[in-house]
Amino acid sequence: MDTAVRVLAAAATSATTRSRPGAPREERRFTMSDEEEDYDFEYSEEEQEETDVGLENSYYSAKALKAEDPKAAVEAFREVMAQEEEQGIWGFKALKQMMKLLFKMSAFQEFTDCYTQLLGYTKGAVSQNVGEKGVNSVLDYVSSSNDWGLLKGFYEQTLDTLREHKNNRLWFKCNLKLGHLMYDVGEMGRLQRIIKELLKACKNEGNGDDDDTNAVKRGTQLLEIFSLQILMHSRQRDQKKLREVYERARKITSAVPHPRVVATILECGGKMHMQEREWDQACTAFFQSFKNYDEAGDPERLQVLKYLVMASILHKSEIDPFDSQEAKPYKQDPEIVAMTNLVEAFRNKQIKDFERILKTHRASLMGDPFIKLYIDDILRTMRTQKVSIMSNNTHFQVLLKAIAPYTRVKLPYLAGELNDIPVTDVEDLLVSCILDGKVDGKIDQVNQVVLCGKVCPAAGGPASSEAGAAAAVGSGSGSRAQTRTAVALERWAESLRSLNTNIAAKVDYR
């Protein structure tokens, strides 16, 4: 009991905020404001007739004293509980109001005693829904504390009481909350034990229940567990187990989960596909995740929308992610506008604009550890696009004609022949020609020379300018063996880049 009191004392200093500063985005915290309305209970006409009018009047009379005389209001609420012959709804409501007043008065021991009584009501004095809302509101309230050790003790007290009362439904929800708390503080060992316990409880509850209602209930609980389990494997960088759980979650059809649960699963699945360079599947997962976050009204939708844009660029998709009805309203959002401009420049093949936007917003983009992993891939994709554009214009044909008569040509000379384009662009064009088999040669970047063995006959004939003759240095010819080696090395380098990305993905990017 002393543990819970210390938790409440720590929580009182930060109860005015809705969440802890700097808390992980997966954490969802709410507080019980003093202006919070009572639960809206709907009664049938018969139930209204049976309601004790005296208790109801006493309750509202006590509530009227809250602002003027909190201590008198507490005593009045105690009277309401004393007047109730058996535990019922008016005593539960009075107890909840007392707890808010006691917390404001820093009477933490009395608050804890009231909480113990509140747990007793969940045994059957009130409906499951009402009991869950009451307990959850208290747990969310004390969750404003930053003392994780004390907070865990408070949760464990709640779980022990619920286990004694055999309130399996509320026990499951509170244990799930504790699991998210362990994820937030990074206690993966304890989190694994909680997940195992939750899966066992879900399995036991499902034994012998074949009707549709129980199947939906079990499916919903499994998705909630899998969501937490996927978060854990994602943080641990265990791709194999992450995929296993993700595939199991995707196979569940009989469930009615909260959109945020589905969004979390799909977001982690999208990141998994990204790490395995499955860009198309990543786009699909991120888009579905965004829609579910949007349905839940979760601000995380903007972050996932950025991931969707990034995946669509890497996939070289011609479809604008912002063409969808769900994403269109966020196109000009300040957090998204950089990604919006980036994808427009990519789709319109505006190379210079793309590079300018990336350079201007590089700091903000690199500020996201996940996006940072794929900046190099985005640049490489754009360079490929750049080469593709140049390959379809006259530069490509001029280049082949310029190098056809020679075995050794300086890159600056070729840049001049191509209307003084940058030497780096000449290199990109040459790499494309060599890999496509249009030029048999290799590039000496140190000396800025291309060594040519053979140009595709369709490329064109000899160069006629004297400058071209001056550019030919030496008479050696490149061999096909050397070219094959260069191509193999290029492919090897690409494999190393891919390996580097996968290794970087193993590093925690929190």
Automatic annotation (TrEMBL):
Keyword terms of this UniProt record: Cytoplasm, Nucleus
Supply the SMART domains for this chain: PAM (SM00753), PINT (SM00088)
| Skewed-composition ranges (Low complexity) | 10-20
Q: What is this protein called?
A: PCI domain-containing protein
According to the UniProt record, one GO cellular component term is: nucleus
Top-rank taxon: Eukaryota
Q: Where is the PCI domain?
A: 275-457
Where composition is biased (Basic and acidic residues), the residues are 23-32
Here the segments flagged for biased composition (Acidic residues) are 33-52
Q: Where is this region: Disordered?
A: 10-52
Q: Where in the cell is it found?
A: Cytoplasm; Nucleus
UniProt entry tagged with the keyword Nucleus: yes
Pfam families with a match to the protein in the record:
PCI
